[in-house]
Amino acid sequence: xxxxxxxxxxxxxxxxxxxxxxxxxxxxxxxxxxxxxxxxxxxxxxxxxxxxxxxxxxxxxxxxxxxxxxxxxxxxxxxxxxxxxxxxxxxxxxxxxxxxxxxxxxxxxxxxxxxxxxxxxxxxxxxxxxxxxxxxxxxxxxxxxxxxxxxxxxxxxxxxxxxxxxxxxxxxxxxxxxxxxxxxxxxxxxxxxxxxxxxxxxxxxxxxxxxxxxxxxxxxxxxxxxxxxxxxxxxxxxxxxxxxxxxxxxxxxxxxxxxxxxxxxxxxxxxxxxxxxxxxxxxxxxxxxxxxxxxxxxxxxxxxxxxxxxxxxxxxxxxxxxxxxxxxxxxxxxxxxxxxxxxxxxxxxxxxxxxxxxxxxxxxxxxxxxxxxxxxxxxxxxxxxxxxxxxxxxxxxxxxxxxxxxxxxxxxxxxxxxxxxxxxxxxxxxxxxxxxxxxxxxxxxxxxxxxxxxxxxxxxxxxxxxxxxxxxxxxxxxxxxxxxxxxxxxxxxxxxxxxxxxxxxxxxxxxxxxxxxxxxxxxxxxxxxxxxxxxxxxxxxxxxxxxxxxxxxxxxxxxxxxxxxxxxxxxxxxxxxxxxxxxxxx
Amino acid sequence: xxxxxxxxxxxxxxxxxxxxxxxxxxxxxxxxxxxxxxxxxxxxxxxxxxxxxxxxxxxxxxxxxxxxxxxxxxxxxxxxxxxxxxxxxxxxxxxxxxxxxxxxxxxxxxxxxxxxxxxxxxxxxxxxxxxxxxxxxxxxxxxxxxxxxxxxxxxxxxxxxxxxxxxxxxxxxxxxxxxxxxxxxxxxxxxxxxxxxxxxxxxxxxxxxxxxxxxxxxxxxxxxxxxxxxxxxxxxxxxxxxxxxxxxxxxxxxxxxxxxxxxxxxxxxxxxxxxxxxxxxxxxxxxxxxxxxxxxxxxxxxxxxxxxxxxxxxxxxxxxxxxxxxxxxxxxxxxxxxxxxxxxxxxxxxxxxxxxxxxxxxxxxxxxxxxxxxxxxxxxxxxxxxxxxxxxxxxxxxxxxxxxxxxxxxxxxxxxxxxxxxxxxxxxxxxxxxxxxxxxxxxxxxxxxxxxxxxxxxxxxxxxxxxxxxxxxxxxxxxxxxxxxxxxxxxxxxxxxxxxxxxxxxxxxxxxxxxxxxxxxxxxxxxxxxxxxxxxxxxxxxxxxxxxxxxxxxxxxxxxxxxxxxxxxxxxxxxxxxxxxxxxxxxxxxxxxxxxxxxxxxxxxxxxxxxxxxxxxxxxxxxxxxxxxxxxxxxxxxxxxxxxxxxxxxxxxxxxxxxxxxxxxxxxxxxx
Lengths: 586, 672
Prior knowledge:
The structure holds two protein chains of two kinds. By secondary structure, chain A is mainly α. Helices cover 61% and strands 4% of the residues of chain A. Chain A is built from 25 helices and five strands. Chain A has helices spanning 6-15, 23-50, 58-67, 103-106, 112-118, 134-141, 189-203, 219-234, 239-250, 258-271, 276-291, 301-313, 325-343, 350-363, 369-381, 384-391, 395-406, 414-441, 443-467, 469-477, 480-488, 496-513, 520-540, 546-569, 579-585, and strands spanning 84-86, 94-96, 107-111, 152-156, 168-175. The chains are: A mainly alpha, B alpha+beta. At the A-B interface, α2, α3, β5 and α7 of A face α7, β5, β6, β7 and β28 of B. β5 (168-175) of chain A pairs antiparallel with β5 of chain B. Chain A: Residues 185-204 are annotated as: Disordered. Chain A: Keywords: Activator, Initiation factor, Nucleus, Protein biosynthesis, Transcription, Transcription regulation. Chain A: Belongs to the TAF6 family.
């Protein structure tokens, strides 16, 4: 009848010493016990509410008992709620999971002297004080130490539990003018969005809720994406990867995958800066994507560009010295250039931003040479006008920095010298290409003053040759393969041999004229005046149209350019002058 | 029906009931009457019995053959009610619950405990939604002595339940009972249900709020109580009013105004102190009219406060110093106007590492001080202004160490001031309006007054006999009220250690209380599921609000003094109109106990904080307006609108407070 079985009453009676409780009494007591317990629990719930809690604790029961003027039950008070475990096989029977504490873990047996000397007094606790007979404990352990135990003291080994942290108060904005700021103290916004949603439904109010857009891609596309990423990561030198690149560059149905690819590229680049082959594969992937005419990649450029620029000007690409990161930089430079070319007109600040980044890298003397190399290559790929505007003005100070690094006696580190030479080569290519463009432009009007120029150039060339004999030799000594790599991106110069010829010719020419020992600066001044006179002469020879006058002016600049370039690179510049002019020179 | 039959019935009945002596006496008397043959007059009067009643008596005698009848009878009634027409079902369903509990108690009283249990368990589910708490209480009743002992059951047995029913439903019910000859049910209905039959169509579901709630007095008495006049207007010459008068003047001219006003203010104050009572009773009438007139016109949302009628204070009010007044005026001038479109900023104070020990928290009116009462009898006060600068704090801590309440600071810098003095869990704390005093109430049945300036205990108020659940300062300070487990609320003033008034009437613990904006009334919420409004001056109960289905945990008064909000254990919030004593609209949304409620300063928003870790903002203006214009159309239109739910990460919200500038402060304990 009652929830409390009469057996329970009997057990309780026995526990307090009443052995001869008649069954009738137990039966009558059982419902009353239930009634009293329920009453107490209702009071306890009241106390719980007033303690602003929603879980009942032993403290609540204690205070309920106090309200009834009943002695509270001691020994169950605990700050935290008790952990109940379900008794096996019973649905509604629970017990408190009380962990057994091993005395072994809690105590060590220590010498008198040691404990008094070494351990602070209040940490020493006799087991007898805890109500435990130490002898029993020791006997149970039964190890050989037993004999010595009588002279030793039991000491709590385990450190005292940490004092609980004191109450503290923090404050934050739950809402600012009704809107919850997204700060870590507040509940995540999804929850609030949900709440808002249900609320608006309830009230039937028109509320503008933006649901998170789920991007659904088909299974085929998923497979495709997985395959491509797998190929990129693991088999980037296989033929199938090349085919995949072709597919990426031509397939028309890939647009849904673009954000995933872009994310994949940027993610992998940031994580795998020392994996050269993967980086190269990623760049090729990016190139294919850009090439694909069906993909509208423009909105993703801002995500893609940092990855490519990273591959261009990163301090280290790949982990081994054998990794040809120069090639990767060249590749990335071309990629940047192609992107700028294609999207520069729609994406207005793309060009300026790229050049700014690169110039920063170029002009920062603290950056490593590979970074300079990348920046120069990138700028060069952007076109001769960029080179003319951004590299050439800085050429002189930069050469001063670069020069000592290139010389054998000043830079002992082979690696570094090699890098410096690479940069030198890149600079040369860039400047040369620029000059080439200029000269080509004025091919028609170049002939008259060429002699004068030639003459002065010759002078300078001689100067340079003398000065840089060793360095030029050094350049020449480079293995042809590397040489090729240096010039690889510049299709224009594949005439290694010609360079050598030219050198010889120039040298001869110089000796013919005789070495002049004036300083470089004065020389250049002299040169410019000579050029000037030469041009004026040219002007007088019959070209009078205004267009041509303008051209002359520019040509004058070009002359300047050429002269200064010769100053830095010597006769190797000749290789960049278009052939007809070259023939003039010679 | 002849006399013989009746006599037979009577004797059979007596035999059945085991009234042996009576039966014996009856038989003797019968014999006697037969022999003397002079009992004609008596029996003739008996013979005028309605045959109907005789039949009932007959059936009663027959049916009294065991407790199983109860279960059958009730289940019959139940299935009949559930299968009745939709139109009348709602009304008829209301009969089920009283019949159920009284059936059960009858069974217990007759000693059929086993049957009572099985009967209770088989039909318990029907009523769980509406009456869970009562059922939990009744469930434990297992012997007739328990019925006697348990106050709840006792009063249930003695009181009558009011059920409103339309004529037709009533007839249907009676017809059914007669047809099935369910006399026990008829008996219960006669004994414990008071039908209020009205002509016309049955009412809609919305009237269902009139649940069975014990009030300790009959419905008529309650109606009478609720007829009493109350003056819900604001105090005249309040600072708000003065601000309105001065309008947008600059602070300088404001100051001058304030100074000019000063003597005025004093005069006003003295009047009621010295002997304003007769005067005020006359004025009351006038005010009444004013109140009636002012209640009708539609108020604009922003000027709610202004439109409220003015009343005289019934209490002698404390003086306010000029500087304080200035600062309050400054706050009022800088108040942010809140509305449906301009929601408040909420600053949440989160307690961490409380180890389940925090019972209550309170925020001072400017939000700079936060007090928290703990179950280890301590009261701790945080100064939020100093919280950022711990190093400065430690220096100050050294100063306060000299006071008797400060010890144990050796542990290093503590960010709070510790007040020790109570000898039981602290259940409530409240700041005086100016923040210079704190009152705390505890399970040790005392209330203590602390000074935040001196960091010391000033007074210990003893009067209650049981734990004091709640204590609240009046809006003007000086006076305070307390609510206790001893079923009373008491009104105190700071300068006396004896209570000024004892407000008795609740049938169970008084769990929370709140002062009316004009200090003339106090509302109390109780475990007996009612809210009562008391007149401070007379100590009389002037309103009883019935409608909650569980213990009331929080109360809030609207700043214009017309409305009151109450929140209960189940998460329901009810908005009451003080004048009519009716529920304007229930606010459903919280899923757990509503610990705290607060009205914004101009009364346009209600904020509620709950154990379900949310702060909800409710639109008050639209709902009250709608209800006034469409009083009869009680439907979804009058529902208060939930404007916004602000979930905290994992912090049940214990207290809410709008500062005078309408910044909302919330406090709660981080729980895992």
